[in-house]
Amino acid sequence: MWRVTLTDRLKELKEKPWRRVVGLNAGTSRDGVDAALVRVRGHGLESRFVVDRYVCRPLPDGLKSALDAEEFTPSMLCRLHWEIGAAFVDAAKDVLEDDGPVDLIGSHGMTLWHAPPPGPGLRGASLQLGEEALLAEAFNCPVVAGFRAADMAAGGQGAPLMPYLDYLLFRDRPGTLLLNIGGIANLTWVGETPEDIVAFDTGPGNMPLDLIARRLWPDGPGFDEDGRGAAMGHVDAVLLEQLARNPFLLKAPPKTTGRREFGPAFVDRLLEAHRHMKLLDILATFTEWTALAVESAVKEWVQPRFVREILVSGGGLHNLTLMAALRRRLDPIPVRSLMEEGIDPDAKEALLFAVLANDRLFGIPTNIPAATGAKWPVRLGRITD
Q1: Among 292, 310, 333, residue at a domain's last position
Q2: Predicted pLDDT at 31
Q3: N or C: which end of the chain has fewer CB within 10 A?
C-alpha cells in the first residue's frame, strides 16, 4: 500500500501548532555528528523554537580513518555517502531517545569539499555526503537536505548559512556580533534588516589546532583540551606574522573557506617548513593566529559599524587560551558565551538546520544574499520523503 502523498504529509505538518524537528550537522572538524531535537512553532520571522535535547555522537573510528584519505575513488565516495548517512541515523536515534516520533529532519550532511566561485560569473562547487533517504526510511518523515546548492546556483558561495538564524535570534538587538568557532570560524553582524547583515568566514578555527593536537598527543582526545597545550607553548612572532599574511585573511567579503585552505595539507606544509620549532610553540602560535584572524575581520570588514557585543559558540568556546586571546585583542568589546543568552553554544549549528528545514516546509527563502553573494533570495534544501 502506498503511504500518504508527500503533498498531504507536508500540509498536515504545516497545520500542527508545534513540530518536532531534528537538526543534524557534521562540521569541518569531522569529529562527530551534532543532533538537536527542536520544537518549532510558526515559520519565518514569526517562528519560535525550543531545543529540547542535544547530543554529539562521535563518528565510528573506521569512518574517521576513511575520511582522512587524501584522495577518494568513486567507490570510496559511494560507500562514504551511505556510511555517513547511517551515522546520521544513529545520531538522530540518540537525540530522540525513543520518546516519540519526529515530524521533520533537517540534515546538512558532511562537507567533503567546498569551493566557492573563484570570481564573478564563475561557478563554484560544494559536496555534502550523507544519504538522506536513510533518515526518511528510518523515521518515516520528510527530510530536508542539500542546503547549499540553491544559493550556489544563484551565484552565491553557498555559505555562510548561519546568518539567517542569527537574524531571527537577535534582530531586536542590532549591533550584536555572533562568532562561531567550529573547524572554520565565521561571524555574523546583525543589522536592522537582513540587507544590512555582514557575515563571512574569518579563517581558521579549530581544524588546524585539532590537527596539531593529534600530532602532539596521538592517543589524546583529538583536540587541545581547554587550550592547555597552547598555554604551555610560546607564540613565535615570525611565524605569526607569516600566518597573518595568509591571502584569505586579506580577501574582502563575501568569502568562505574550508579544508582546502586550512586542512591537513596546509598544516602539513607549515609543520614541515617549521620542523625546527617545538610543536607546543606552533600550537600556541596557531591559537593566537585564530584570534588574530577574528580581530582582523572585525576591525577591517565590520567596523566602524557599532559592535554591541560578541557572543561566541562552537567548540572553540571551550579553548580557554583562545578565548583569552580573543578578549585581549577585541577589548573593549564584551566577548561572552552564547550560553549566557540561554542558547546552548554547542547545539547552535544543529538548531540552524532544524530551523532551515522548518522554513523549507513553508517555502520561505532562507539564504542571506548580503552574506553569500547570491543574486537573490532562494529556498534552501530539497525534500526527501
Answers
A1: 333
A2: 82
A3: N
273 and 130 fall within a common domain: no
Residue 219 contacts residue 121 (beta carbons within 8 Å): no
- Please provide the average confidence, as pLDDT, over all residues in the chain: 95
Residues 368, 262, single domain; the answer is: no
Give the mean pLDDT of 151-163.
96
Crossing angle of the two packed helices 162-170 and 348-361, in degrees rounded to 10: 90
Mean pLDDT of 17-21: 98
Distance (Å, whole) CA 14 – CA 17: 8
CA atoms within a 13 Å half-sphere pointing along the CA-CB vector of 71: 1
CA distance 184 to 202: 8
Q: How many CB atoms lie within 10 A of CB 205?
A: 30
Average pLDDT over residues 315-328: 98
Q: What is the CATH number of the domain that holds 13?
A: 3.30.420.40
Q: Is residue 83 part of a domain?
A: yes
342: left (phi over 0), alpha (psi -120 to 50) or beta: left
Range of the domain at 105: 6-159+346-384
Closest CA to 143 of 1, 21, 14: 21
pLDDT score at 4: 78
Q: Residue 7, SS3? A: helix
Relative to beta strand 143-145, strand 104-115 is: parallel
What's residue 1's pLDDT?
40
Q: DSSP of 33-64, one letter per residue?
A: EEEEEEEEES-GGG-EEEEEEEEEEEPPHHHH
What SS3 state is found at 125? strand
| Spatial separation of the C-alpha atoms in residues 349 and 67, rounded to whole Å | 21
For residues 216-242, give the mean pLDDT. 97
First to last CA, the chain: 15
How does pLDDT run across 336-350, given as a tens digit for each residue? 999 999 999 999 999
Assigned C-alpha cell, 213: 593536537
Amino acid present at 103? D
71-107 pLDDT, tens digit each: 899 999 999 999 999 999 999 999 999 888 999 999 9
Report pTM.
0.94
Please give the Cα distance from 42 to 162 (Å, whole number).
19
